[in-house]
Amino acid sequence: MAGQSRRAPGELEADVLAALWRAGTPMSPGQVRAELGTELAYTTVMTILSRLHDKGSVTRTRVGRAYLYRPAYEQSELAASQMRSLLDSGLDREAVLARFVGSLSPDDERTLAALLRRAASRR
């Protein structure tokens, strides 16, 4: 492994999920490996897919002797869930939200404002 840098925790899982989202169709471990375009071993990709399945992040369907994998949820659902978890773990929700809103681009601010108006009108 000389010359290779270690990945950050969860980075490979995120890369595999991103490959599955891009494909938009169930993929075999070999297809995922090819999509990643890396020198990863097939067994490494299999291990990551198994871990993602155990976590409920992907579903799998047996086709012959192999499995085809697909994300268990949309990319936007994952991002929203992560944002919610981070918000829930903070001590000062208002400060966290203020910093988040303060970091938005003008376009994102307009989008957020429109979404808040739409949510308020449904209540």
- Summed over residues and divided by their number, the pLDDT gives a mean of 90
Share of residues in helices: 55-70%
The H-and-E topology, N to C, reads as HHHEEHHH
Tell me the major beta sheet. Answer: 2 strands, antiparallel
Unreliable runs: none
Radius of gyration: 19 Å
Short description:
This protein is mainly alpha-helical. It has helices at about 10-25, 30-35, 40-55, 75-90, 95-100, 105-120; strands at about 60-65, 65-70. A hairpin with a 2-residue loop joins strand 1 (about 60-65) and strand 2.
Notes on the structure:
Helix 1 packs across helix 2 and helix 2 crosses helix 3. This protein is elongated. The longest helix has 16 residues. The model has no long low-confidence stretch (mean pLDDT 90). Helix content is 61%, strand content 10%. The chain is mainly α. It has a two-stranded antiparallel sheet with strand order 1-2. The termini are far apart.
